[in-house]
Amino acid sequence: MESSAKTRKVILIIDDEPSILKLLNFILSSTYDLTIKTSGIEAIAWLEEGNDPDLIISDLMMPYFDGSLLIKNLKVSGLYRNTPVILLSGADDLAEKVDAMPFTVDSFLQKPFNPTALKASISELLTS
After folding, report:
1. In the chain, what are the domain boundaries?
2. Rounded to an integer, what is the distance from CA 127 to the centroid of its chain?
3. Residue 3 pLDDT exceeds 60
4. Which run of H or E residues covers position 27?
5. Which homologous superfamily is 10-127 in?
6. Could you tell me the pTM of the whole model?
7. What is the phi/psi pair of residue 5, to 5°?
């Protein structure tokens, strides 16, 4: 590959809802390289293989290993401390949950989310 070729940013998406995954793939795949995982456990396994996404989008509420625990582990690990994170959730009290977290979340959106707002948030996080 030529050094002048622009490489696409990699986004790791973790969500257990097929409809959300389909929507995110539809909205983002033309601009970004997407890696889709359906659980926090799958995401951790992928990251442990040495993969390094430019941004992570995670559902907050998932079975077995939820988004909060996943992001806490990534931020504490040090390796992904500076990787921007966007949380998605259908929780009514999402802002309160994010404020109570012992780590920083770069952005969060309530489901159902506005695709334009999501794209704007991604763009802002990847250029800052």
Report:
1. 10-127
2. 16
3. no
4. helix 18-28
5. Response regulator (3.40.50.2300)
6. 0.90
7. -70, 135
Q: Does pLDDT of 1 surpass 60?
A: no
d(CA 28, CA 124): 15
Cα-to-chain-centroid distance, residue 63: 17
Phi then psi for 69, rounded to 5 degrees? -65, -40
d(CA 13, CA 87): 10
Q: Identify whether the C-beta of residue 126 lies closer than 8 Å to the C-beta of residue 9.
A: yes
What span, in angstroms and rounded, lies between the C-alpha atoms of 119 and 19? 18
Residues 6+ apart with CB under 8 A from 33: 8, 9, 10, 11
Angle between helices 40-48 and 67-77 (to 10 degrees): 20
Of 45, 40, 43, 48, whose CA–CA distance to 12 is shortest? Answer: 43
